[in-house]
Amino acid sequence: DPPPPPPPPQPQRYCVATIITLKSPCLIWQDIATMQLCANKLDKKDFFGKSDPFLVFYRSNEDGTFTICHKTEVIKNTLNPVWQSFTIPVRALCNGDYDRTVKVDVYDWDRDGSHDFIGEFTTSYRELSRGQNQFNVYEVLNPKKKGKKKKYINSGTVTLLSFKVESEYTFPTSLHYMSPYQMNAYAMALKAVGEIIQDYDSDKLFPAYGFGAKLPPDGKISHAFPLNGDGEHPNCVGIEGVLEAYFQSLRTVQLYGPTNFAPVINKVANCASEITDGSQYFVLLMITDGVISDMVQTKEAVVNAASLPMSVIIVGVGPAEFDAMEELDGDEVRVSSRGRLAERDIVQFVPFRDYIDRSGNQVLSMARLAKDVLAEIPDQLLSFMKSRGIEPRPSMSSSPLHRHI
């Protein structure tokens, strides 16, 4: 008897994991902090007077830098100022991380703009939220004076007089707002990219997650929750199924900070690490407003994922500055973490606003976005296959049997 025919070649399957960030808390449930501060015995800086003090609040960033988030008014000619109460979104102060350092600088105002530094102190949203107490009396320290004067104690003190937080519901102005007349930016980006990617997926089942939300019933914050609400079976049928799950989740979760990218990247990376023979390739689509709370951890996740059969597409929606997202895109400078460079460039970032058609044609906007956002995926896929010495399996069209038929 002739030997049995070889088994038919198995088709290569390219899995597309669609991850959507549902994060835009400053526009949906916005926590507003109102506080008032005063100071006592600040250093005298003006030659012919006392000082004209004001405060500058800074939010700390993941890379150790600080971003200005509020300035008080200037109180003229006093060393014991009482500033007016002011309001600030909690997100602007700490981006949802209640223990994140908040730095406050005290300056003496000068007309020419060369304000004199009096000193600084640090606190956190959690400390401030405790209100007026002995722990919210801060020593204003000037490092230069402390280094020069042995008997230096401080440059005065700042006291928190009052602190309260109120929530404002502003859903209609959110990037997630669902208009009856047109899709929101998240849905447009998902549909534009997803409908093309889904043609390369064999079963059209897409695990879809959100991150940055409080989940019912206990309000637990999650950074990787299934949009369809089913932790055991997070798959959605087709991109239309993902869209349906996305819209449904907006009705059931409370969007909340911080915005951590690393958990969803690691979730997909764990799946990709189990199948590295070239039979599957994972494309992670992330749609975000650009805010990121865990840049250090995200860089590490990208570096780790760069050795896996995986690509990450990030679409930025809204008017924000996307400097952090540009940094993750390794076109100019390869992403690094703890001295390790990413093996491959696996991140492609595009801001959706660059592709919006001026005439308001959504179809044209989506087509432009899809064209550019998918431009790097083929090379990224091939770079992985080549680095592992994986060659394409023969297709049915190239077999002698198929040609004979």
- Supply the number of structural domains: 2
Poorly predicted sequence stretches spanning 5 or more consecutive residues? 9-28, 396-405
- Which class of secondary structure composition applies to the elements? alpha+beta
Total of DSSP H or I helical runs spanning 4+ residues: 11
Reported by name, the CATH topology of the largest domain is Rossmann fold
Roughly how much helix do the residues carry, as a percent range? 10-25%
Number of strands: 20
Rg over C-alpha atoms, rounded to the nearest angstrom: 27 Å
Strand residues, percent? 25-35%
User: What would you give as the CATH superfamily of the largest domain?
Assistant: von Willebrand factor, type A domain
Indicate the CATH class of the largest domain.
Alpha Beta
Largest sheet: 7 strands, mixed
Shape label: elongated
CA(first)-CA(last) distance: 24 Å
CATH 2nd-level architecture of the largest domain: 3-Layer(aba) Sandwich
The overall pLDDT average reads: 83
InterPro entries: C2_dom, C2_domain_sf, C2B_Copine, Copine, Copine_C, vWFA_dom_sf
Pfam family, one: Copine
Protein name: Copine family member IX
GO cellular component, one term: plasma membrane
